[in-house]
Amino acid sequence: MPEQAELYVEAARVSQVMGRWLQVATYIQRTEAVLPDPDATARAELAVLRAQADFGDCKWSVAVNGLRELSIDTASIVFARKAVTPRDIALYGTLAGLAALDRDQVKQQLLDNVQFGQFLDRMPECQALLQSYYDSKYDDALNMLTRILSFCHLDPVIGPHVTTLKQRIRDNIVVLYIQPFVSVRMSSMATALCFGSTAQLEDTLVRMIDSGLIHARIDGTTGFLIKHTVNARDAALSRVETMHRAFAQQAELMTARIQYLEEESARKRGARA
């Protein structure tokens, strides 16, 4: 690796330790500018640094896309420096995936990914968490998530985002849980999703409804969460009305243009006469 590129990589490593993710991304860009065709080892180190920067900047979907393409063999020199381990890669990818991907994507991009599976083999807890999430065993998934996050507070990449990650992943699980139902009894839901009380679940649901994550209403009298359902006839009528308004607007514009052209033509004939 050229000396200038090595200096940029070293600066990115220092910035990563200090948690300055924007600087990490900047030094990676500078490295790629002076080293447009890095070898496999350099490419792996840059990928790890970029994924850490994206994770640290809460760009979960971008981070997981980079992590799932890593190979444990090409990244071995990165692990040899002890700056990051295969278990770290499994942890970053698992948490970013649960925060950013839907259920099917978790299966396709993480559980069934041969390359990422090599990292999951080094941390079976992450594989069990992903499998429980995919199998809709939400109480097991939430308990495992709590245990895993409990030792992440000191991690320089994950530590600052433990609370955000837990809320984001729990919100995703709430969405998945209510997906098959028209209405759900909140007391049963609170038990299934490991909430301390129905009131705690209700606070979470109110926040999610206000933010548009779920479309439902809370019936305080019966204790049910009732999803908003779209009437097929109303939806069809709405589409027809939208098309009618668009057609009427186009017809009005066309009539005005024809009238303008006729008047312009009459004016020109009068001028020639």
The level of helicity is over 70%
Q: Could you spell the SSE succession in H and E letters? A: HHHHHHHHHHHEHHEEH
Number of helices, where a helix is a run of at least 4 consecutive DSSP H or I residues:
14
Arithmetic mean of pLDDT: 87
Anisotropy-based shape: flat
What is the element layout, followed by pairings?
Blueprint: H1 3-17, H2 21-34, H3 40-56, H4 60-67, H5 76-80, H6 86-100, H7 103-111, H8 114-122, H9 124-134, H10 138-150, H11 162-178, E1 183-185, H12 186-192, H13 198-210, E2 216-219, E3 224-227, H14 232-272
Antiparallel strand pairs: 1-3, 2-3
Helix pairs in contact: 1-2, 1-3, 2-3, 3-4, 4-6, 6-7, 6-8, 6-9, 6-11, 7-9, 8-9, 9-10, 10-11, 12-13
Task: Please provide a brief summary of the model.
The protein is mainly alpha-helical and 273 residues long. The protein contains 14 helices and 3 strands.
Structure description:
- The protein is mainly α and 273 residues long.
- The protein is 71% helix and 4% strand.
- The protein has helices at residues 3-17, 21-34, 40-56, 60-67, 76-80, 86-100, 103-111, 114-122, 124-134, 138-150, 162-178, 186-192, 198-210, 232-272, and strands at 183-185, 216-219, 224-227.
- A three-stranded antiparallel beta sheet has the order 1-3-2.
- A hairpin with a 4-residue loop joins strand 2 (216-219) and strand 3.
- Helix 1 (3-17) runs antiparallel to helix 2 (21-34) and helix 6 runs parallel beside helix 9 (124-134).
- The chain is flat.
